[in-house]
Amino acid sequence: MTRRTIRDHLATAARVARTIVGAPDYDRYLTHMRRRHPGRRPLTREAFARARMDDRYNRPGARCC
Amino acid sequence: MKKVLSAATWIAVASLGAGSLAWLALSRGETVNAAWLITAAVCTFAVGYRFYSKFIASRVFALDARRATPAVRLEDGRDFVPTNRWIVFGHHFAAIAGPGPLVGPTLAAQFGFLPGALWIIIGVVFGGAVQDFVILAASVRRDGRTLGQMAKDEIGPRAGFTALIAVLGIMIILISVLALVVVNALRASPWGTVTIGLTIPIALLLGIYLRWIRPGRVLEASLLGLVLLACALYAGQWVAANPSLAPIFTLDAKTLAILVMAYSFAASVVPVWLLLAPRDYLSAFVKIGVVVALALGIIIVLPPLRMPSLTRFVDGTGPIFAGKVFPFAFITIACGAISGFHALIASGTTPKLLERETDARPIGYGGMLMEALVGVMALIAACVLTPGVYFAINAPAALLGPTAASAAHAISTWGFTLDPAAMQHLASQVGENTLLSRTGGAPSLAVGMAQLFTGLLGGSEAMALWYHFAIMFEALFILTTLDAGTRVGRFMLQDLGRHVWEPFGRVSWYPAVLLSSAIFVAMWGHFLWQGVIDPLGGINSLWPLFGISNQLLAAVALCVGTTIIIKSGKARYAWVTLAPLAWLAVVTLTAGWQKIFSLSPRLGFLAHARMLAQGPAAADTGRLIFNDRLDAAVAAFFMIAVLVILVDSAREWFLVLRGDRPAASTEVPLEPTALAS
């Protein structure tokens, strides 16, 4: 395996892990902004993390047993 | 040729499953290996998934991979995000799996392994997995609407409101019973108390890390957190071995209960980034870690089940909780067989992530089968203990007495044997002062896991570490349900309260935040306190209430599902949700009725209150009588809620079937997906 593919695999694993625990995925957000709203300036990583966290906890869903 | 081969394979899988089930059911006297139970479960689940879930997907819902999902149509990069189905599966599983499937089967093992095993295996295929799948599919077709909204839209405003109040009641009972599990796991255990106590500063540290040092780097922070958790485990061991520090952290149940309430209150009012969010991430990893570790341990060791297939306690005289195998086995095991709470998750985040409609089948039905497997593993972990040890850990002190010798005597009258010296030795092996009457299921699961791992890796001195590793992980994710649940409850209260007094509903006005958090903590704290002072250990009365409430929510979900199926013109398939609904209604109403009105003081709340009132008055008598009556009222409330929703739904079905009401679909109209298929 080349170094390039190892890094790709690690990045994929990290993305999977983040989605599973429900953590915000900044890279995916950037991709979305580039594709859907090319004219708008995306939030910084810090601002995105804050916005997602506030959003998640201000509309709390249920908690499972 | 391919068709023949496939048919032959499935016939083989089905026969293997049926054979294993028969072996489990018919074995008498000899010990059965856990391998039979796992084979029976895995084969049944495979057949159920391949055939029954496919039937539901194609015939009942006609799921269509070409139809655009909400994630595709409403993609916003935040909530609505088309996501690979395996990742959604992981997310959904992490959200539905909790302490429920670990505790319920452990407690139900008092009937022997067979009732629990059959209920999980059959119940999930026809009940739990169907519920999760149906609600997920319905929500995906309705832009990811929640269960409460669907109840209101499909059945009517009264059903919607009843569901809302019921969810609040269920949260209160759920949080109090889980808090009691943690309290019982940490009682008189300096090691456990220190380890769990340290998870709070660890979470604060991670919160600061994520906010100020490396914003948004959740994986880094979680990795750091896991390393710190391992350190906390050793710190606990060190404190417990230190003669001057150990007594400070050897706490009784009342003190622990107050600490748990104070912690949850604090977690509900401090900013989420500081405590709640970092704990949430950490505990999601921990949860998956525990499940994987348990599964590996069982699959590699394949231990024999020491518990008989049926015990004498099927007659209702069991020490852990009262009541006969019907209906109480079906109330005690909710999560794992069917859990109403999942309907809230399946109509929450998950439907907003599906890339294709057809993914609802592996995620909804398949995800619940995975949870059932966790339930089976927990049942195995309870049954690998000898029955004597199992009852010594799980039966309340009022029945066992204070010493290993008195416990051995009590257990011998139940027809099992316990060697007092061996019991004391086991306690010191796992680094505890005592394991007697550590009710709630967590310590017994931890002992089972510690025995499995010690059997696997050898080294009996490592047993204490394994035990506390299991306790730490369980307590960590239970506390995460408590703190986050308290916050959810606070929001619900504020939402209800704003109709009475508008400022109470302002979620960022600090006086309202403090007041609503305090009220909610007081509500579940009352039940926790009741459990702590209860001479019978509390689990006895609270776990059945939790089971009834969770099954009530499942009944709501199945009512919504049935209504949707009938309104979409598929009334001939309504039995898919009606059959489990009928079973749940019978089980919940029977159990509720018996808990309230049974003439036996061991079982009936009111009979117990009468017995106390006629007996000699002690300091606590008045409060115990009040608690019994309150429990009876709570059970009655849940039963009335079930009836309201059942009656309203049945009327709706009747009107639609008779043609008096148009079978209007609330589905979002079909729009082809833009995704390449």
Q: Could you describe the 3D structure shown?
A:
The N and C termini of chain A lie far apart (42 Å). Chain A is flat, with a radius of gyration of 15 Å. Chain A has helices at 3-21, 26-36, 45-58. With 65 residues, chain A is mostly helical. The longest helix of chain A is centred in the N-terminal third of the chain and has 19 residues, at 3-21. Chain A has a domain at 24-65. Chain B is mostly helical and 677 residues long. Chain B is built from 26 helices and two strands. The mean pLDDT of chain B is 92. Classes of the chains: A mainly alpha (65), B mainly alpha (677). At the A-B interface, helix 1, helix 2 and helix 3 of A face helix 4, helix 8, helix 10, helix 12 and helix 14 of B.
Strands of the widest sheet of chain B, in order across it, are 1-2
In the predicted model, the low-confidence regions of chain A spanning at least 5 consecutive residues are: none
Oligomer kind: heterodimer
Given the helix and strand composition of chain A, which structural class is it? Answer: mainly alpha
Distance linking N and C termini of chain B:
28 Å
Following the backbone from N to C, one meets helices and strands of chain A in this order, namely: HHH
Query: Helical content of chain B, roughly?
Result: over 70%
Distance between the termini of chain A: 42 Å
Class by helix and strand content of chain B?
mainly alpha
Report the portion of residues of chain A in β strands: under 5%
Q: Largest interface, per-chain counts?
A: A-B, 35 and 56 residues
CATH superfamily of chain B: Amino acid/polyamine transporter I
The number of distinct structural domains of chain B comes to 1
Fraction in beta strands of chain B? under 5%
Structure characteristics:
heterodimer; A: 65 residues; mainly alpha; 68% helix; flat; B: mainly alpha; two-stranded antiparallel sheet; 2 strands
